[in-house]
Amino acid sequence: MTTAHPAEAMFAADEASRSLGIELLEHGPGRAELRMTVTRAMVNGHGIAHGGYVFLLADTAFACACNSHGPVTVAAGADITFVAPAHAGDVLVARAEERTRFGRSGIYDVSVRRGDEVIAEFRGRSRSVGRATGDAPKESQ
Asked: Is residue 72 within 8 Å of 63, Cβ to Cβ?
């Protein structure tokens, strides 16, 4: 029996992302690529994809990339710049790449694209919490 890669194990347990139809396409050390189709339920009052869903896609790619090294890693912060609108039916691909890791921290950039067009640019800052993927969090004292 083989053990799932840390990014695969984390994504398999991510009900929020999987329930939106997000798919993990590829992953490797410090990188991940995910895909999501914008549904009618993801469109806001302006007729464009709600920024929260675009952020969620980018954040999920970030999570897969920063958890690819093994220890459980969480977001310490993130910023997003929306470059172009997405619409119902658009297929978005988020590619996350590690820029640097230092100590228990890291910096990751994620580009969200519709084909060749950039929809959003995301920068995430990560922090390793030091437990293995799948371990239960320690209860606070």
From this structure: no
